[in-house]
Write a structure and sequence with these properties.
mainly alpha, 96 residues, single chain, 5 helices
């Protein structure tokens, strides 16, 4: 079911919104609905305590990682060569 929302705006502000909507080939109503959807997506959702607990749990894990200078070099070479750089495990298998 849809509900009607009435918002009172000064004439100049309404004209500005109408112009923005017109540039995007939208009705004022469609433009406002989209603006409200964007605003809802930017709002934080969920329980902050749960988010912190998840981050703390993840921070306790230790995973193997390569040397940062080596990883950045591989990324750079891959970006400039146009070819993908095989993962370290694949390189070790081939070099034996």
């Amino acid at each position: 079911m849809s509900k009607r929302l009435q918002v009172l705006l000064p004439d100049d502000e309404f004209s500005e919104i109408r112009g923005l909507a017109k540039r995007e080939r939208l009705t004022v109503a469609a433009w406002v609905r989209r603006a409200l959807d964007d605003a809802k997506r930017r709002q934080a959702t969920g329980d902050p305590a749960r988010k912190i607990a998840v981050i703390r749990a993840a921070a306790k894990n230790e995973f193997p990682s390569g040397d940062i200078a080596s990883m950045l070099g591989e990324i750079e070479r891959g970006m400039t060569s146009g070819q993908s750089v095989p993962p370290p495990a694949a390189r070790r298998r081939r070099s034996r």
